[in-house]
């Protein structure tokens, strides 16, 4: 509790005293005062109390005394009550209200909670009024060495490369102690090696593990198990300790060279084996592991490198020896190949250990096989023959030989799938190829055939070669105009004007190249309109010789042109060049080349005139359709006027079961017109009972025919109004005429009104109409039994 100062006028009075506390540290208050009119009262305090200490893990049976709080105003008469509040107040810590003594009732553990914050208060016992302000203090739990060091991350696994120098850092271990590191030596830890100290050491303070020897060899031992101990109290007597296991893996370095288990290997292969065929596999071993065992192989001797090649299998690290060139038993039967193995990842630190390569000899024996004939040259033959060569002429000779020692005779043939037209023949013994048909270079300039050679006594031993035959050209096709040339000129063309350039084509291909000569045909030698100009580059130009042409006189000119090639022999042909005379505008653009179109307006083209005519024809057709449609509608109206209005009268003489009875009547009956025969003064015997009641009254009243003129006039008026309405299409329509006429004699249709009439009509038939008319039948038939009884 702190002292509270209150100033009044010029004097300073102490209103509250200061608490005294006793615990691990004694505390007191000294008060001195000097009384005078202008004196001040001063409370001298040498420290500020705010904490107690209590030892952890107390095992006594009585509550542990913590400390005491006391107020200077306490005179020992029990008038002051001391209380505490805060963490653990009333449960872990209790206070004597009279003396202020604080005790701990439970066993405390600093590792769980290191301190408790509480508040102390001195109150008047009678009034419970606070005598001093509430003061906060702390109870700290004092540590004892009750927790051993623990390796929280163990067990540990580390690694170090083999042959590492002494003192190489491997890894670091760390232990933790739950005791208070600020109090005593309970949390001061030192490290030591219990097992494996011959090969590794550990730093006492940092826990870093290092190598103790320089000759760690993975190939001898690839891992070590260490036991590292951590001791608190700085390793002093009575300190607690904990241990952990450390596994150190020795990693590999490339310190071992490859070695072949044998100095010689032997394999046998047939001379007919194809290029790329595997002869055999050899492997060099390496005591290292991982990529340090990767090696490459090569062939050291020159002769073996020409016929064989070696590659490395990436999965097995084996040397695969394959055939590089075809083997020949007749030339050499045994080959000695020197194969060398080399480490791919040599470590320069271990060069002094020796050479990291090794060699072995691979002896390959070639076995003899029956081989098919071999053509000379083996890559195929190219032959030439003139296009005009006669049938049976020699084209060339192919040669094949049996490579075996027996040298069996060879027979030749042509694969007809490559010469389906049988243009060529071959002599089976000599291999001479001759013509079987006449050639045409313009049809096919090259012929590719396949020649087969087989042994005379073994048809299965066969080989083939490709023969390409080139057809040499002779001049047997005349030159021709490249296209059917046609051009147009204006009527006002100037003399000497170049109007077109022509070129020619020739199917022949002379070795010296083409050279063509152009002249006008003899029949056009007297031509005065156009001239032919030979440009000397295998083209010719057409020029005009006079000015002005009249297409009304002649609108087309045909110019025959003769073309001659350079031979030999020189061949020629004559082609026709068409020239049309056209009308042009002032700029020279062609407008029309038709003589009849010349008289038409220059403002409209033929296409525009055709479009105009089509539009006029469409308009005429539309007008005719409209007139026909109107006439059709007028005819319909006239026929409708003549129809009898009775065609639209519906007979509905069934009242049904009332407004709630929506299913009593079949509405389809309304869709069929009722045919009312016209009432006339005749002897046909019209059945008036089939007519409505008001019609019967009129007929029976005067004995004459019914007058329908009123209805006919009304209906005709409605029809005319409908015909005059232009907003509706001219289709058949349905009109509703809700007009009954003037002074209708028809009575009420109410069933109740009918019940009160004096009609003698028999309504017993209503009972036969079913349950829907049962109620209506009761209204009309209820009086009949009484009449019969009377």
From TrEMBL:
Domain of life: Eukaryota
Membrane topology term: Single-pass type I membrane protein
Subcellular location, principal: membrane
Parts of the chain that traverse the membrane: 608-629
InterPro entries: Cadherin, Cadherin-like_dom, Cadherin-like_sf, Cadherin_CS, Cadherin_Y-type_LIR, Catenin-bd_sf
UniProt cross-references to PROSITE patterns, sorted A to Z: CADHERIN_1 (PS00232), CADHERIN_2 (PS50268), PROKAR_LIPOPROTEIN (PS51257)
Protein name: Cadherin-22
Source species: Pygocentrus nattereri
């Amino acid at each position: 509790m702190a002292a509270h100062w209150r100033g009044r006028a010029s004097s300073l009075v102490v209103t509250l005293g200061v608490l005294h506390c006793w615990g691990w540290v004694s505390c007191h208050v000294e008060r001195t005062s000097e009384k005078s009119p202008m004196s001040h009262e001063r409370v001298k305090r040498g420290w500020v109390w705010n904490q107690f200490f209590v030892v952890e893990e107390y095992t006594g049976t009585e509550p542990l005394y913590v400390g005491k709080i006391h107020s200077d105003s306490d005179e020992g008469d029990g008038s002051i009550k001391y209380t505490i509040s805060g963490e653990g107040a009333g449960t872990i810590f209790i206070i004597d209200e009279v003396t202020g003594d604080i005790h701990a009732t439970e066993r405390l553990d600093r590792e769980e909670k290191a301190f408790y914050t509480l508040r102390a208060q001195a109150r008047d016992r009678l009034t419970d009024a606070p005598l001093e302000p509430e003061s906060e203090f702390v109870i700290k739990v004092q540590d004892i060495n009750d927790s051993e060091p623990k390796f929280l991350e163990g067990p540990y696994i580390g690694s170090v490369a083999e042959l590492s120098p002494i003192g190489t850092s491997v890894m670091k271990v760390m232990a933790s102690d739950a005791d208070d590191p600020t109090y005593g030596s309970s949390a001061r830890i030192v490290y030591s090696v219990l097992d494996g100290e011959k090969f590794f050491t550990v730093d006492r303070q940092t826990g870093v593990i290092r190598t103790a020897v320089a000759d760690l060899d993975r190939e001898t031992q690839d891992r070590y198990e260490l036991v590292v101990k951590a001791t608190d109290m700085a390793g002093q007597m009575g300190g607690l300790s904990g241990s952990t296991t450390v596994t150190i893996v020795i990693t590999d370095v490339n310190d071992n060279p490859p070695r072949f288990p044998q100095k010689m290997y032997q394999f046998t292969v047939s001379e007919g084996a194809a290029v790329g065929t595997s002869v055999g596999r050899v492997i060099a071993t390496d005591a290292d592991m991982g990529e340090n065992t990767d090696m490459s192989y090569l062939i050291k001797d020159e002769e073996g490198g020409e016929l064989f090649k070696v590659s490395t299998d990436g999965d097995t690290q084996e040397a695969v020896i394959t055939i590089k060139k075809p083997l020949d038993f007749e030339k050499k039967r045994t080959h000695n190949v020197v194969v060398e193995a080399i480490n791919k990842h040599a470590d320069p630190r271990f060069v002094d250990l020796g050479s990291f390569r090794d060699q072995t000899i691979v002896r390959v024996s070639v076995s003899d096989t029956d081989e098919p004939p071999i053509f000379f040259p083996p890559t195929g033959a190219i032959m030439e023959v003139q296009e005009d060569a006669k049938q049976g002429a020699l084209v060339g000779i192919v040669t094949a030989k049996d490579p075996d020692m027996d040298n069996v005779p060879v027979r030749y043939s042509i694969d007809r799938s490559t010469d389906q037209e049988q243009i060529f023949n071959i002599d089976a013994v000599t291999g001479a190829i001759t013509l079987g048909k006449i050639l045409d270079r313009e049809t096919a300039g090259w012929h590719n055939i396949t020649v087969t050679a087989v042994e005379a006594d073994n048809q299965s031993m066969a080989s083939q070669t490709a023969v390409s035959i080139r057809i040499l050209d002779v001049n047997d096709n005349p030159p021709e105009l490249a296209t059917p040339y046609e051009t147009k000129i204006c009527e006002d063309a100037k003399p000497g004007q170049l109007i077109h350039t022509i070129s020619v084509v020739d199917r022949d291909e002379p070795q010296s190249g083409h050279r063509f000569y152009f002249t006008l045909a003899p029949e056009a030698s007297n031509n005065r309109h156009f001239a032919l100009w030979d440009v000397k580059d295998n083209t010719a130009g057409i020029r005009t010789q006079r000015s002005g042409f009249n297409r009304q006189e002649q609108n087309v000119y045909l110019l025959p042109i003769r073309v001659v090639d350079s031979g030999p022999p020189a061949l020629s042909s004559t082609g026709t060049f068409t020239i049309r005379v056209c009308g042009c505008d002032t700029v020279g653009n062609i407008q029309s080349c038709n003589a009849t179109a010349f008289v038409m307006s220059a403002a409209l083209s033929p296409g525009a005139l055709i479009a105009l005519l089509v539009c006029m024809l469409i308009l005429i057709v539309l007008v005719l359709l409209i007139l026909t449609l109107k006439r059709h509608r007028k005819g319909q109206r006239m026929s409708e006027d003549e129809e009898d209005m009775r065609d639209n009268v519906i007979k509905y003489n069934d009242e049904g079961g009332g407004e709630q009875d929506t299913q009593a009547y079949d509405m389809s009956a309304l869709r069929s017109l009722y045919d009312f025969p016209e009432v006339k003064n005749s002897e046909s015997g019209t059945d008036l009972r089939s007519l409505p009641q008001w019609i019967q009254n009129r007929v029976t009243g005067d004995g004459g025919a019914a007058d329908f003129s009123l209805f006919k006039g009304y209906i005709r008026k409605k029809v005319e109004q409908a015909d005059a309405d232009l907003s509706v299409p001219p289709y058949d329509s349905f009109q509703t005429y809700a007009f009954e006429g003037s002074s209708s004699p028809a009575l009420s249709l109410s069933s109740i009104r009918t019940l009160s009439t004096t009609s003698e009509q028999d309504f017993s038939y209503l009972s036969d109409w079913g349950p829907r008319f049962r109620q209506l039948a009761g209204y009309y038939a209820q009086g009949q039994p009484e009449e019969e009884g009377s």
